[in-house]
């Protein structure tokens, strides 16, 4: 998958902005992880979860990758259900089309 495949026409401006930012990170691994997670989940996330996702997305990509892969210990303030869902999400890195 090379980028967004979901239409954002039905999303409010905040969700559109988050979806765009999730696909335009800094390193491709995080584009794929956060981008595909956001595509799948953005429409159903609560306002509190959107707040948390925006906070997570402010972190450096290299740190996020290390926390998700377990290479680096996850800071306690990110030991949340949402971060666990993101870390458990397995993007389709090479879909057969």
TrEMBL record:
UniProt entry tagged with the keyword Chaperone: yes
Record key words, sorted: Chaperone
Gene3D superfamilies: Flavinator of succinate dehydrogenase
InterPro entries: SDH (IPR005631), SDH_sf (IPR036714)
Family under the similarity heading: Belongs to the SdhE FAD assembly factor family.
Protein name in the entry: FAD assembly factor SdhE
UniProt source species: Sinorhizobium kostiense
């Amino acid at each position: 998958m090379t980028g967004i495949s979901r239409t954002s026409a039905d999303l409010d401006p905040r969700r559109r902005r988050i979806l765009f930012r999730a696909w335009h990170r800094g390193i491709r691994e995080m584009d794929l992880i956060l981008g595909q997670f956001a595509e799948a989940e953005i429409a159903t996330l609560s306002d509190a979860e959107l707040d948390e996702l925006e906070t997570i997305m402010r972190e450096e990509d290299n740190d996020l990758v290390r926390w998700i892969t377990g290479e680096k210990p996850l800071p306690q303030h990110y030991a949340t259900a949402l971060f666990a869902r993101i870390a458990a999400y397995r993007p389709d890195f090479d879909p057969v089309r």
